[in-house]
Design brief:
Blueprint: H1 4-32, E1 34-37, E2 48-51, H2 52-61, H3 67-84, H4 87-96, H5 102-112, H6 116-122, H7 128-138, H8 144-153, H9 164-172, H10 184-201, H11 205-217
Antiparallel strand pairs: 1-2
Length: 222
């Protein structure tokens, strides 16, 4: 069995420039509140702008759904669309792209609009774990995974996104014991296991997540 460290080092040798580019785009969101995402050659879509609010909406769209479809929806709706489109307009776009939870996600995004100022303030927090607790309390549809996803995508480096790809990597490499449900305790345990890998490889949690996602999917998304 190949040690997980060696698996990740191989991925670093293959896609480091793309990972570095994505991390730079995330940091631009944290510092400027605006970025340009470019997903070529992994997704055939033109580069597009995103802001803090549209990124929060993206993380609602991709909860238990495909990141690639979320990217295509985010590109089409655009910064202003997430803030201004009617529930029906959002519903029709999500349905066109084959989203599994069309009305639920459209409603959650409309209901997120009064929290735009709060989401802007979050990016100035120093501690990602404290910011995560605030997000879970206030944002409908955000658990630890979704809140961590949003924070990573706006430049935080100290939280892990424990999704099915990450859990499978941890289980397969005996870094945590297999569990049937992702409780808060299991999430924290998994995050700690990833932190040890981060220290060994001199990577942030955000970078490590992108490398593991690449290992599992052969794509660098977000």
């Amino acid at each position: 069995m190949i040690p997980p460290k060696e698996i990740i080092l191989k991925a670093i040798s293959e896609v480091k420039p793309y990972i570095d580019q994505r991390i730079s785009q995330f940091k631009s969101l944290k510092e400027k509140g605006l970025t340009v995402f470019d997903f070529k050659p992994f997704v055939d879509i033109k580069a597009y702008e995103a802001d803090i609010f549209s990124e929060a909406c993206f993380c609602i769209l991709t909860a238990n759904f495909k990141a690639e479809v979320g990217i295509k929806i985010q590109a089409e709706v655009g910064i202003e669309g997430f803030k201004k489109y009617s529930l029906e307009e959002l519903y029709n776009i999500f349905r066109k792209h084959g989203h599994r939870f069309v009305m639920q996600r459209a409603e959650r995004i409309v209901n997120l609009r009064p929290l735009e100022s709060f989401l802007q303030e979050i990016r100035f927090y120093d501690d990602g774990k404290k910011a995560r607790e605030e997000l879970v309390k206030k944002v409908t549809g955000y658990g630890y995974k979704e809140a961590s996803h949003f924070l990573r995508n706006i430049g935080f480096e100290d939280v892990a996104i424990i999704d099915r790809h990450i859990l499978r990597f941890l289980f397969e490499n005996n870094l945590v014991k297999p569990r049937k449900t992702l409780t808060k305790n299991v999430y924290i345990e998994s995050e700690s296991a990833l932190e040890k890998l981060c220290q060994e490889l001199n990577l942030t949690q955000g970078e490590l997540d992108l490398y593991i996602f690449y290992i599992k999917t052969k794509k660098v998304l977000k």
